[in-house]
Amino acid sequence: xxxxxxxxxxxxxxxxxxxxxxxxxxxxxxxxxxxxxxxxxxxxxxxxxxxxxxxxxxxxxxxxxxxxxxxxxxxxxxxxxxxxxxxxxxxxxxxxxxxxxxxxxxxxxxxxxxxxxxxxxxxxxxxxxxxxxxxxxxxxxxxxxxxxxxxxxxxxxxxxxxxxxxxxxxxxxxxxxxxxxxxxxxxxxxxxxxxxxxxxxxxxxxxxxxxxxxxxxxxxxxxxxxxxxxxxxxxxxxxxxxxxxxxxxxxxxxxxxxxxxxxxxxxxxxxxxxxxxxxxxxxxxxxxxxxxxxxxxxxxxxxxxxxxxxxxxxxxxxxxxxxxxxxxxxxxxxxxxxxxxxxxxxxxxxxxxxxxxxxxxxxxxxxxxxxxxxxxxxxxxxxxxxxxxxxxxxxxxxxxxxxxxxxxxxxxxxxxxxxxxxxxxxxxxxxxxxxxxxxxxxxxxxxxxxxxxxxxxxxxxxxxxxxxxxxxxxxxxxxxxxxxxxxxxxxxxxxxxxxxxxxxxxxxxxxxxxxxxxxxxxxxxxxxxxxxxxxxxxxxxxxxxxxxxxxxxxxxxxxxxxxxxxxxxxxxxxxxxxxxxxxxxxxxxxxxxxxxxxxxxxxxxxxxxxxxxxxxxxxxxxxxxxxxxxxxxxxxxxxxxxxxxxxxxxxxxxxxxxxxxxxxxxxxxxxxxxxxxxxxxxxxx
Length: 685
Hints:
Blueprint: H1 2-21, H2 38-50, E1 53-59, E2 64-70, E3 81-83, E4 86-88, H3 119-122, E5 130-133, E6 142-145, E7 151-156, E8 166-168, E9 174-180, E10 185-188, E11 191-193, E12 196-201, E13 207-214, E14 220-229, E15 234-240, E16 243-245, E17 250-257, E18 263-271, E19 280-286, E20 294-301, E21 307-317, E22 321-324, E23 334-336, E24 348-354, E25 391-397, E26 400-403, E27 408-419, E28 427-433, E29 441-444, E30 457-460, E31 466-471, E32 476-486, E33 492-501, E34 550-553, E35 559-562, E36 566-577, E37 582-590, E38 595-599, E39 603-604, E40 608-617, E41 621-632, E42 637-639, E43 645-652
Parallel strand pairs: 8-14, 16-24, 22-23, 26-33, 35-43
Antiparallel strand pairs: 1-2, 3-4, 5-6, 7-9, 9-12, 10-11, 10-13, 13-14, 15-17, 17-20, 18-19, 18-21, 21-22, 21-24, 25-27, 27-31, 28-30, 28-32, 29-31, 32-33, 34-36, 36-40, 37-41, 38-40, 39-40, 41-42, 41-43
Helix pairs in contact: 1-2
């Protein structure tokens, strides 16, 4: 009771003293845009009696405008307000607040009663307090006050500093800038920082940053800013046919996810025989619905060319973000699909497209036409007159020609001779052809190159009887045939040339060593001989028997290598039928980043071929490597079984060891720490 009476008397004295000396006696102006009214006047009196410099401020807790006592509670924007002697806290991060401190009431907090008015330079306070004038008593002595803290956190995404929230793309850089009163202890998301500074950050998911500062004497404040990250779509679980015959369909499917909806889905293929990572669409679906976040996609692909391919998935979140498999681009707003939302297969699968085995059509046997027998006249015998046979030949030039992938050239056919001279007349047209569905070259008119990939025949009816040839994207040899029709000759003549494809322009590609296909001897095609002998008959030419091409590939050795090291694996191709003149292996690895494969030339014998490949470990992981092998006899192609032949690859890290430097080791026994054999770099020694 005595304390309350003393407080009232003291408060009245202070009020009269302040009024008499005209010390900050102005009350809130009711016309002030942020404060005014009778509530402010009454609160003002209470603040002055409590001994502080009052100012008009909004009370964010009670949603009213009042006169507040400062610096007792200067962090009102963060939800703390000092209402007379009661402290209210609405901190979202759970920190306690102490803004209603009565520091000047204790004699232990005095910093020198004789130092006024030089309190800030003469007085000494502890726990981070400030020595300044006490206007609540007539002595005007110096006391220690726990000053409030001003803290500010802002974000800049390229358009200037703002309080947030802001929205960024995943991994997009942005700047955080923070500032607080000196003499404070500050933390950004729990990590200590200087009271003012800035830094560059990036996120893959949304986050709220907290800037928290305290004084030893009990002041505390916070500020925060929210950075929202646009969601990235994802895809994976690609499944389907691992081997397809060219010209036949194969089915594929994949799963897709977009946390924000607006999901668009695609399945595409990439020909690994090219030097770039191309995207060729197989199937596509645009859901365009924000409520649909999951879904599969199925599509059918009919490849036209043999080779090794990737079939992959691709996803969109509307126009906001897109994901692609590794190696197919990752510049925002394009990001890498990781397939982590799906079980099973990844974002791509390896597909081998093989050439269909052509069906050999047997040549029909001609039935000889019996020659009519002339009945001799009894009186006079007519002696038969023998007409010499007419034989002609033509030449296809050049005899052979070598092309790089995608290059074209021209071949021409011209008459050589006829016996007797001139008996065949002149060439009227020439039919050109290469083996159907071959993977080496295509032909067309000499003025229409490059030729379509599926063009295998062409007829020229005008001199100079020429044909264009274009190399495909597989190395090897193929025979170009020409059949000439004459104006007087009964029958036709034929000749051949060889087309060799060796690889991309200026980029040598190792291919299987092939024994050159011998140029067939130009044997003039005999024409029917007019033999008037009554009893003569024509003997039919026997049809040659074609030997089928058959081969198998032995199992590949499992490969276990350390990261960065290189080893060699060899495919043993066993030839069980056919006169083989060339072997072409196609190597691949899954996943693509596991290892690098460098093929070498094959060694060919009549019964087998050895095809080596150099393997270098690139990523610590496990997977498979495969080879598809084709053989040729110069006229047809055959694919060895199984197709493909697969082997396993495991890439592991090098084994650890230890060494001693600048010291000694003492032991009662032996000490051994050999350097692993797979530590091949001189930096490891």
